[in-house]
Amino acid sequence: MIEISDKRLCTGCGACASICPHDAIALVLDEEGFWYPEVDRVLCVDCALCEKVCHMLTPQTDDPSFTGKVFAACLKDRDVLAEVSSGGAAWALTQETIRQGGVVYGAVQTGLFNTMHMRAEELKQAEAFRRSKYQESNMGTIYRRVKADLDAGRNVLFTGIGCQVAGLYVYLGKRPTGLITCDMVCHGIPSLRMFKEYIHALERAECEKAAGIVYRDKSLGWKYNQIAIYLENGRVIKEWCGSHPYHSSYLAGLISRPSCEGCRYQRLSRISDITLADFWKYQGKLCAENEESGISLVVCSTEAGRELLGRALSLLEAEHVPVEEAIRSSRHLTKPAPFHPLRNEFFAVSRIVGFMTSYRTYEISRRITAFLRRCKGKVHRSVKGTFRIGV
Predict the structure, then answer these.
(1) What is the enclosing helix (H) or strand (E) of 160?
(2) Do 21 and 46 meet the contact criterion of CB atoms below 8 Å apart?
(3) Within a domain: 359
(4) Considering the entire predicted model, what is its pTM?
(5) Cα gap 60→208, rounded to integer Å
(6) Phi first, then psi: what are they for 369, rounded to 5°?
(7) Cα–Cα distance between 118 and 124 in angstroms, integer?
(8) Is the pLDDT of residue 385 over 50?
(9) Structural domain of residue 94, as residue ranges?
C-alpha cells in the first residue's frame, strides 16, 4: 500500500491509480491544493503494485551526454499561431500524429478549476490541448487508456511534463515503439488552492463571476503576454504576466508543489523524445516575422522524436540551433526552478488571511527589500567615491 510520508516524493502522476487492479486509489487534493493518491483500505489487498510503479521510488539512471538536436520553430499558419501560447510546435506534432492515424493525449482545462489529461483522435478534439494551462492536471487513470491504444497497435503522442512522462514509462514497463512522448519545460506545478483563492478574490472585487481564462494572451505580443480573465458579463480583464499576482507568485517559487524542488527531470538529456519551451532569447532568421507571434524551442532527444518533427516540418518554419543557445534561453532545460525561501511560510499565512493578502504582504516586503538594497548600493558607491577623492 502506497503511503505518502514525504510529499517531496510524490509528483501526482497517477501511475499508482492506473495500476491498481481494484481501483482502490484515487487522486485527491490536499490542503495546499495539489493532487495526491488516497487509498481505500477496504478495497486494497496490499498487492504492492502501486509501490512498484512509483517513478519517484525507481532509481534514476546516470545522465548521459546529450546527443539530440535543437531547433527554433513556429507555425506557418499565422491565424493558428495567434491561438497558441508559443510558436505552435506542439500543434504541428499533434496534427501530424492524427494525420497518420495516431492518437494524442494532452491537458485540457474543462472549467476554471478543472484541468485533466484527455485523449483525442480528431483535430477538433485536440484543439482543447492548445494554449498553456498553469494548473496541475488531474491524471486520474489516463495511463490505462494510453496502454490500451498502444496494445491495439495505435501510434500515440503523449504530451505532459517530465514527471508525468516518467510515470507513464514506469507504468508501461518499457518505451514501446508506437509511443512518442513530449514534455514541456516547466517552472514547477502551482497550487490549485491558490488559484481558486485568487479567482474568488477577483470575483468579489468585480462583483461578477469569472467564466474563463487565457493564461498567455498574445494581443500585445508574445513577449508581453498577458493573463486574460473573461467575466460572465462579457468584460475581459487583462494583466501582464510579470505583475499578475498568481503568475508572479508561481514564478517566484512561492506556490510550487513540494516535489518540484530539485526536480529529477529538468536536465539534459531529457526524459522525453521531444521537449518544448518558449525560445525567448532566440535571435535567428525566424525573428524577422515571428518575434512577436511566438517561437518554440524544440529539443529532439531521440531518433523517433526527430522523425516526427521531420514529418511535421511542412507545417513549420524551423532552424537548427546549437544546444548552448537553447540552454541560455531556457534555464529549466537543465536545472529545476528554485523554491522561494518563504514558500512554506507563504502557505501557512495564506491559510489564515488568504492568498491575496499574503501576496500583497510579500510584494510590499519584496519592494522594500529591493529599495533598501539599491540604497545600500548607492551609499556604498558614494563612500568609495569620497575616499577616492580624499586620496
Answers:
(1) strand 156-160
(2) no
(3) no
(4) 0.92
(5) 49
(6) -60, -45
(7) 13
(8) no
(9) 64-353
